[in-house]
Design goal:
Elements (H helix, E strand, L loop, with lengths): L20 H7 L7 E5 L2 H12 L6 E5 L2 H7 L2 H10 L7 H8 L3 H8 L2
Parallel strand pairs: 1-2
Helix pairs in contact: 4-5, 5-6
Length: about 110
């Protein structure tokens, strides 16, 4: 994934973010999904859609047409949260906040769509 200057996260993004404590226990044995965030033109997206309709697994993608909207959505603080969660398995929001040294409320705000 292309990154803006000053941004780097070498791990894979792990989207499992349990909402409740019991969710952590339930997800312990679950396979974790991989989400690919990046740039893709309309042709690339169309090719993935066509392959998906043929039944080929395409994985999960969040695609942006250019870097500007990507870095408007993924702010430096959100990038920090993504890096802290990457490869860590299920994490409670308090643990994520501790890892990025921010208060729970602000991290919670960054984790909501």
């Amino acid at each position: 994934m292309p990154v803006a200057p000053g941004f780097w996260c070498s791990k894979q993004y792990n989207p499992s973010f349990p909402r409740k404590r019991e969710s952590i226990a339930r997800m312990q044995g679950a396979a974790l999904a991989r989400i690919t965030i990046g740039l893709a033109n309309s042709d690339a997206v169309e090719r993935r859609v066509r392959r998906a309709f043929r039944g080929e697994n395409q994985g999960v993608f969040i695609s942006f047409a250019s870097p500007e909207p990507l870095w408007k959505v993924i702010t430096p603080k959100r990038w920090e949260v993504l890096c802290a969660m990457t490869g860590a398995g299920p994490l409670a929001i308090r643990e994520v906040a501790r890892r990025v040294q921010r208060d729970v409320k602000s991290v919670h705000g960054d984790s909501k769509p």
